[in-house]
Every structure is written in structure tokens, then in C-alpha cells.
Amino acid sequence: MSKEIKVLNFICLVTAVAFLGGAVLNLITSGDLLTTDNLFFTMVCLVMALLFAINPLLYLRSIGKLPIPFLNSSPPAVAQVSGASASPRIRSTATSKTPELLDAKGRAVPPDVRAMVSRMGQTEPKDA
């Protein structure tokens, strides 16, 4: 399976380079650049090159060989409230002061429930 993926990605990259070459060749050999026909042919070649280049780029990103700039590499830890246990577990993150609470299915907890959970965690001083 890995060899098939590599062959298909190679074919896609060769096709994308061929379409880019067609667009460049059109720009070099055409006498008048701003005619409707030349712009149409150039845009069709560029869009086809993009379509054939997307699949290999997404594959490289999925295996971790293509880093995306300005994107955090590790997601921050998320606080969770487990519905299965009797006492809710709340793990705080080091990046935020108030952790985001999630229910057992991973959905965000509404603000009123978040307020109730925060009140449960507080201990009130008892009068002696």
C-alpha cells in the first residue's frame, strides 16, 4: 500500500509540474498576455496544477514531513469533567487560568454548569 501511495503521489506531482510548465510556456510564447484566451488558458493550467498538488501536500502533512508555519505543534491540555464518576475530575492547564470544561463526550460545558462546578470546588469556612 505504501508503494502505491508513493507512485500515485509521484504521478500527481509530475502532472502538477506539467500544468505549471504549460502555464509558464503560455506566458512566454504568447505575444499578447492580457487576452481572454491567454488568461483563461493560464488560469486553467494553474487551477489544474493546484488540484494535482493538493493530494501529495496533504499526504506529506499527515505523515508529519510538511510542517505548517504559525501553527502550534502540540495542542494544549484540556480540562475535562467526567460524567461517569461520582466526583468530577478537573485538570487545569498551565496556559490558562480558567480551564475549559468538557463533558464526557468532549463537548464544551455551558457557563451555568461551569459556575456550579466552580462553586462545588470551593470550601466555605465553617463558624465555630
Structure overview:
This protein starts with a helix and ends in a 7-residue tail after the last helix. The chain is 52% helix and 0% strand. Helix 1 runs antiparallel to helix 2. It has 2 domains: 2-62; 74-122, no CATH class. It is built from 3 helices and no strands. The chain has 128 residues and is mainly alpha-helical. The protein is elongated. The model is unreliable at 83-96 (pLDDT under 50).
Note the topology.
Elements (H helix, E strand, L loop, with lengths): L1 H28 L6 H27 L48 H11 L7
Structural category is: mainly alpha
3D shape: elongated
Q: Biggest β-sheet: count, sense, barrel?
A: none
Residue share in β-strands = under 5%
Element-level helix/strand string: HHH
Number of strands: 0
Instruction: Give the helix level as a range of percent.
Output: 40-55%
Name the average pLDDT: 80
Q: How many distinct folded domains? A: 2
Provide a short characterization of the protein structure:
This protein is mostly helical.
